[in-house]
Amino acid sequence: MSDELSLRDLRLQKLARMRELGFDPFAVERFESTGSANDLLADFDAKQGQAVAFAGRVVSHRLMGKAGFAHLSDGDGKIQGYFKKDDLGEAAWEVYQLLDIGDHVGVQGELFRTKTGEPSIHVRTLVPLSKALHTIPLGKEKEGQQWYGLTDTEQRYRHRNLDLICNPEAREMLIRRAQITREVRNYLDARGYLEVETPILQIVAGGAAARPFTTHYNAYDMDVKLRISLELYLKRLICGDIPKVYEIGRVFRNEGVSNRHNPEFTLLEFYEAYTDLEGMMEVVEGMFRHVAQAVFGTTQLAMRDGFVLDFSSPWRRVDLLDEIERLAGVTRADLATLESAHKALGDKVIVNTATGKRIVPEEEHNLGGLIEKLLEVFVEPTLIQPTFVVGYPIETSPLAKKDPNRPGITRRFEGYILGKEICNAFSEINDPIDQRERFEQQLGARAKGDDEAHPMDEEFIYALECGMPPTGGCGIGIDRMAMFLTGAEVLREVIFFPTMKPESREDD
RNA sequence: GAGCCGGUAGCUCAGCGGUAGAGCAACGCCCUUUUAAGGCGUGGGUCCUGGGUUCGAAUCCCAGCCGGCUCACCA
User: Fold this and answer.
1) Residue A108: φ, ψ to 5°
2) Minimal CA–CA distance to A11: which of A95, A97, A133, A130?
């Protein structure tokens, strides 16, 4: 028998004793507080003597003979209760003694200050509202400094409820993320975009270069895929003359996890008819400015080490091939064809000495991929303040309009913050003939073994053939957006339940 | 997928060849305004799993599982 089991048994015994005393925590359905802990504490001296009710979780418990204290937390704030045997009566006093850190209770009493001046509730009535059967690893704290607590990253992610109870930063992150998505919606709604929902189960999972998850639909006895993007269905709505649409939804990519990747993540995509990639840039700039201002009260966000992430002005705009020439020394002429590029780069591994990132030119078998690799290794690390990189190669952009003035280049940009991609946008292809050719090129790549190449989607082509206006579209990873704006170091801090392998449990 | 680091009490950690420790939490007693409450006492561990080396393994070796970091791939 493990120790945890005996601690749990002990708490079950306390629960049973509470029930014997006529206080069944789990029988209570409702308890109304006069206000939040912070409400009660505000302008406290004016309210001394006032009768109040308050419910919260027990986060400290100090028994001293025939009286005692406990701090009750509502998550946002906490207030101390003073419990005295004479005031509570025998049964409720025993209930107080049976309380553990982690239990929920409701109290009624008057506001007063203790001898040491702490605003407290002089409790007359105690109502247990839940019993915690496990130890809550809440550290003790003094003057804002915390001792112990839950710090093991694995446990924090596996038991996020404990993380939220024990670590105020985790709670802060959750709230900030919610505020960020709310303000994204507010911004787009105010601009006349319609929020929609499109299928997650799809026959053809397209709109991005990624491997999908596959599952089985019993009723039709067919395999279906989980979506990897929102793009194609949203554009079918544009084809239905819904001129401004967006969706914030979960997409799934069958790939590894890292500091900046999770196999399921939240994607925002928005599409607007009769505009182009420049129009999308303005929307993106405005969105970040609005969200930063609304959530953080400033468009100049202080990051660690005194760095300020600045959304107050238009984002820097650079051309992809210009930047590669400037930072990697590879010219546009070099990048005219795959052969000329290989000739220019040679067969040696090229290392960016500043970052340690490297390219193996001979491993890149198409020009677009090679160009994007050069971007990643030499350009990305320089894109710290918000920057739009314009002009992506056609091979890796099967849904973006061709640039009429630049063969091989599309009307596409990506936005970067802190050296990482944050959005991807373009003037959408609305020529069904062009779109079919692009898909066919992708099928060619797929035949050569590229299992992330885009599949053919006849339904989508059919919608284009019925007519789609010129359209600008953009995708933004909401998790990354939350990460950048909050200054979180890893994506899993803003994904509350990151994908993890199961932990084998012996006590099942 | 590769490399490096880690997994010891409920939590945070120490121990790194001689048979398991601390603080907090827990349990008992004392204490009717404390606040990292205090005092006295007590219990609690397949040292991630499975092999191996050794008289002896938490400790050394091998394999595996889970996690973290870096890299690869992608948003």
Assistant:
1) -130, 140
2) A133
pLDDT in tens, A225-284: 999 999 999 999 999 999 999 999 999 999 888 888 899 999 999 999 999 999 999 999
**Helix residue ranges, H only, A301-353:** 320-328, 338-345
Cβ partners under 8 Å of residue A16, min gap 6: none
Q: Name which of A188, A186, A185, A198 is nearest A272 in CA terms.
A: A188
pLDDT band at A381 (very low <50, low <70, confident <90, very high): confident
Work out the number of other CB atoms within 10 angstroms of the CB of residue A175: 13
CA distance A379 to A106: 58
Q: Cα–Cα distances in Å, from A320 out to A106, A370, A374? A: 61, 13, 10
Find which nucleotide's C1' atom is closest to A140's CA: B36
Residue with the two structure tokens 């986060």 = A59
Rounded (10°) angle between helices A458-465 and A231-238: 20
Instruction: Give the residue whose CA sits closest to B9 at C1'.
Output: A3
Residue A122, nucleotide of least CA–C1' distance: B33
Task: Dump pLDDT digits (tens) for A56-115.
Answer: 999 999 999 999 999 999 999 999 999 999 999 999 999 999 999 999 999 999 999 999
- Residue type (1 letter), A427: S
Region for A350 from its dihedrals, namely left if φ exceeds 0, alpha if ψ lies in -120 to 50, beta otherwise: beta
Q: Tell me which nucleotides of strand B come within 7 A of a protein CB.
A: 1, 9-13, 23-27, 30-38, 43-46, 65-75
Taking residue A269's Cβ as centre, other Cβ atoms within 10 Å add up to 25
Tokens standing for residue A346: 């040679």
